[in-house]
Amino acid sequence: MEVLSVDLPMCSERSWTQQKIAVEIERTHKLTLSMKFSSGQLLSIYVHHQGVPFGDPNFNPIIQPFPGLPLPTLSPADWLGLTDKERLQQNASAFSNLPVYLASVKCQQMDLNPLEDELHRQFDSSRLQCLGLASNLKSIMCSLGITPVPDVSAERLEPDDAFFMKLTGYHICHLFQDWVNRCEKDIALLAKKYPV
After folding, report:
1. In this structure, is the dihedral angle defined by the CA atoms of residues 93, 94, 95 and 97, taken in order, positive or negative?
2. 91 in any annotated domain
3. DSSP 51-82
4. Mind listing the pLDDT tens digit of every residue in the chain (196 residues)?
5. How many whole angstroms separate alpha carbon 165 and alpha carbon 163?
6. Closest CA to 45 of 113, 108, 97
7. Residue 24 placed within a domain
8. 77 — phi, psi (to 5°)?
9. Which residue, of 68, 79, 161, 174, has the fewest CB within 10 Å?
10. Which stretch of DSSP H or E encloses residue 166?
C-alpha cells in the first residue's frame, strides 16, 4: 500500500498574522465538524455490511491501536495537561496515517463486499478528508512555528480470514471516528486562544 503524503512549503511564523492564524484554525475546525458526521456515517455503514456479530448492540470489542495510530483516549486532566504543540502533533500524526489504513480496509471490503459501492465511496471520501485535515493541521503548526516531528509510519494491513479483516476494519473505522472527535475538541480549544 503506497503511503500518500502532502508536502507543505517551507514557512516561517513571521509570515503569518494573528488574523491569518485564526482564520486557518477556524477553517480547520469547520472541517472537523463536518468530519464528525461523515466518520459516524462510515462506521454505521461499515457495521451494517459486516453481518453478525457486528450489528449486535452488545458487540463492543476493545479497540486496538495500530502503528502511527494510537488510541486517542486521555483522561480530562491528562488532556488538559497537553500543550498545543503536543495536541497538534498527535492529531497531525494520526490523520497522516489514517489514509493508509482506510485505503487498506477499503481494499479488504472490495473483496468481502464487492457490490457495496456506497461503502467503498465512503472510504475514499474519508481518506481524502483525512489528507486535507492533515495538511491543515501541519499548516497551523507551521503558522505557530511548530516543527512537526517525524511520524511513526502506518503499516499495511495484511490479509487475514474474513472475520479478522472485518474486525480490523471495525477498529480502523472506530479509531477514525474517535480521532475526529478528539481533533474537533483540540481545535475548538485552540480556536478560543486565536479568535477570528
Report:
1. positive
2. yes
3. -TTTT-TT--PPPPPBTTB------HHHHHHS
4. 333 334 444 455 456 788 999 999 999 999 999 999 999 999 999 999 999 999 898 999 999 899 999 899 888 889 889 999 999 999 999 999 999 999 999 999 999 999 999 999 999 999 999 999 999 999 999 999 998 888 788 888 887 899 999 999 999 999 999 999 999 999 999 999 999 8
5. 5
6. 113
7. no
8. -65, -45
9. 161
10. helix 162-193
